[in-house]
Design goal:
Keywords: Disulfide bond, Membrane, Receptor, Signal, Transmembrane, Transmembrane helix. By secondary structure, the chain is of the alpha+beta class. Helix content is about 15%, strand content about 35%. The chain is built from seven helices and 38 strands. It has an eight-stranded mixed beta sheet with strand order 26-25-33-29-34-31-32-30. The longest helix is centred in the C-terminal third of the chain and has 35 residues, at about 415-450. Bound molecules: 2-acetamido-2-deoxy-beta-D-glucopyranose (NAG) (10 copies). One 2-acetamido-2-deoxy-beta-D-glucopyranose binds next to loops.
């Protein structure tokens, strides 16, 4: 009878001992690994190729021949004796990594002492490693403690004032997972921006969020669709991305050089294709064009220019630009509308203002040099939806996007300057209008016929040249598919989004409906042909 009990007990233990999880009775030792049930991710001990430092516990792609790590537990405390590490999930529902001397190198600190026997640590299909209570509640997840990688379904907060979700921190070198000086995350001074820092200095900045909920990216040759979504969780905003079912492995990293990259695995070439990289090589680095200068991506090769009403202050843009005519404050000033702009940094976020109130806010303050407004409708569950930004003093890190994204920046200038600029506009406007009408007609036609119009791409701009597998001379005169698809196509395709790419089904489902609305209101989604270039701002 006792023997029978033992057998039953043993077989129960065996069932629990599937290899995607740890239990208090089954720690992980050097040489062992966990594999997610879909076989995509593995967790175990590793030593980077040329590392002499020691070994680490990490998560990598199990099905990709080129070893690629997406998460590291003890990045700053390697195990010096590679054969001695042990990762345990304790009866207190904590993960503890220790060496042979019993020193703790890394641990979660849940201190969950309510006798939760049956706790396990599970490597999920998404690559998320979670501590799971017997009642299926997850009390800790690696997705909340990223290293340098964001996987589909992970969330990057636009604000970092809670310690739950921390910044991405780059590896120190190709073989050294230790934390480096490059980090990336929400800018807690504004709650609206994502910034890459080099130490404490900004290295690159994403424009202030304008309320757009979704941006989709589509590659017609492979059917690959990726959406970037801004989700509202308890009044806080998080960026997240998903890919369509059957897509290649896709990840987003802060490279050890400080570059932020979007990569997709190419199984044909057995390498990672970089299809978006920030900062762009040109003038995209933080404040590169100086005060009142801006990085103009509408140029074939993006370069610094002065904002209208300004002229270079010196031989190049290292000192930025100066006003042609001083402001008078009061009646003598007007606002000039600059469209398609990446809004500058160092704004003051004024809450609860209408557009007119926002303008008044700027007009009535002699120190105010510009303002921008977005109503952020449906972007937030909070009642305060409008976003009024005003700038006091110099405008730094401004840009102009080439593809029609970006927002209006209302720049304060002496009225006489504005008059002169608007004379130029009077000539330019009819030309712009006819181009717009033509564009609308073509778009409507494309949507209707859903045909795949082929256009000649004269020059693939710099984003394309960054693709590791593309040579810039090949891209000249190459035929690509017209980079637009119709809304219905996106909806059809997004129905196929796999579950495991979504974190928290309920919450995401709701957001997803909003996403559809947003798409509908735009009618068309900007999507991309070969090489996957993209909107400068809307993507990270
Ligand atoms: C490791 O070091 C060797 C020799 O120093 C070098 O040839 C090789 O490229 C390095 N591997 C990696 C992945 O850096
Ligand atoms: C490394 O750990 C193994 C197993 O615990 C032990 O036998 C060995 O002596 C250790 N080596 C060193 C240098 O501490
Ligand atoms: C965890 O709890 C089980 C059952 O209560 C016990 O047998 C085991 O020794 C405990 N493990 C540790 C490390 O305390
Ligand atoms: C868990 O306990 C440790 C030490 O006792 C403490 O430093 C840590 O803050 C506690 N963690 C939580 C989440 O309470
Ligand atoms: C699961 O169990 C923990 C502790 O026993 C408890 O705090 C939590 O509320 C439970 N969750 C659910 C969904 O029952
Ligand atoms: C980051 O800062 C360090 C020192 O402050 C500097 O040497 C390095 O060039 C910077 N990196 C980049 C990419 O600008
Ligand atoms: C994958 O790589 C091959 C060979 O370099 C290339 O021909 C192909 O276009 C790439 N696929 C994608 C989707 O980029
Ligand atoms: C701008 O000019 C200054 C002085 O002439 C020079 O030191 C600096 O390197 C130049 N910067 C660029 C980006 O050309
Ligand atoms: C927002 O502004 C309106 C009037 O402009 C005012 O009635 C309302 O109380 C304000 N709401 C908040 C939350 O400040
Ligand atoms: C915002 O929500 C309202 C109703 O909740 C809806 O009528 C409107 O179309 C939505 N606007 C956008 C841009 O999605």
């Amino acid at each position: 009878m006792a023997a029978l009990h033992v057998v039953i007990l043993l077989s129960l233990i065996c069932i629990c001992r599937s290899d995607d999880r740890l239990t208090p009775a089954k720690p992980l030792s050097a040489g062992d690994k966990l594999v997610s049930s879909n076989g995509v991710f593995a967790l175990g001990f590793f030593s980077p190729t040329n590392s002499t430092v020691g070994s680490y516990v990490g998560i990598w792609y199990n099905n990709i021949p080129k070893r690629t790590y997406v998460w590291v537990a003890n990045r700053d405390k390697p195990i010096t004796n590679a054969s001695s590490g042990k990762l345990v999930v304790t009866n207190n529902s904590d993960l503890v990594l220790s060496d042979s001397q019993g020193r703790t190198l890394w641990t979660t600190m849940n201190n969950f002492t309510t006798g939760a026997t049956g706790t396990s640590a599970v490597l999920l299909d998404s690559g998320n490693f979670v501590i799971r209570l017997p009642n299926s509640t997850d009390i800790w997840q690696s997705f909340h403690y990223p290293t340098d990688t964001i996987l589909p379904g992970m969330q990057l907060p636009l604000s970092t004032d809670d310690d739950l979700y921390t910044r991405l921190v780059a590896w120190r070198g190709p073989d050294d997972p230790a934390t480096s000086d490059y980090s990336m995350g929400g800018d807690s001074s504004s709650d609206l921006q994502v910034v890459i820092w080099n130490g404490t200095r900004p290295y690159w900045r994403r424009a202030a969020w304008d309320g757009a909920l979704v941006t989709a990216l589509y590659q017609s040759s492979t059917g690959f669709i990726m959406t970037q979504t801004t989700v509202d969780i308890g009044g806080k905003f998080y960026l997240t991305f998903t890919v369509s079912d059957g897509s290649p492995s896709t990840r987003l990293i802060l490279h050890y050089t400080g570059m932020f990259q979007f990569l997709a695995w190419n199984s044909t070439s057995s390498s990672w294709n970089v299809f978006i990289e920030r900062p762009n090589p040109s003038c995209d680095r933080y404040a590169y064009c100086g005060p009142f200068g801006y990085c103009d991506a509408t140029e074939t090769v993006p370069k610094c220019n002065c904002l209208s009403g300004f002229e270079p202050d010196g031989v190049n843009f290292s000192q930025g630009c100066r006003r042609k005519e001083e402001l008078t404050c009061g009646g003598g000033d007007s606002f000039s509308t600059l469209s398609g702009m990446k809004t500058p940094d160092k704004f003051v976020y004024v809450r609860n203002r209408s557009f007119d109130q926002c303008e008044a806010e700027c007009r009535n303050n002699c120190a105010c040099t510009a303002y921008a407004f977005s109503n952020m409708k449906n972007g937030s569950t909070s009642s305060d939806q409008a976003r009024c930004l005003i700038w006091l003093g110099k405008l730094v890190d401004t840009g102009k996007f080439r593809d029609g994204s970006g927002e209006n920046l209302y720049l304060r200038l002496a009225s006489s300057t504005v008059d002169r600029e608007s004379n130029v506009l009077k000539i330019a406007l009819p030309v712009i209008a006819s181009i717009l009408i033509l564009a609308c007609i073509s778009l409507a036609w494309i949507c209707k016929s859903r045909g795949k119009l082929r256009i000649k791409e004269t020059k693939n701009k710099y984003t394309g040249q960054l693709s590791k597998n593309s040579k810039s001379n090949e891209l000249e005169n190459e035929t690509i598919e017209l980079p637009y698809i119709c809304f219905e196509d996106v909806v059809t395709a997004t129905d196929n989004f796999s579950d495991y790419n979504m974190l928290g089904k309920g919450g995401f489902g709701k957001v997803y409906k909003k996403v559809a609305m947003k798409l509908l209101s735009k009618g068309l989604v900007r999507v991309l042909g070969k090489g996957l270039t993209s909107s400068e701002m809307e993507w990270f």
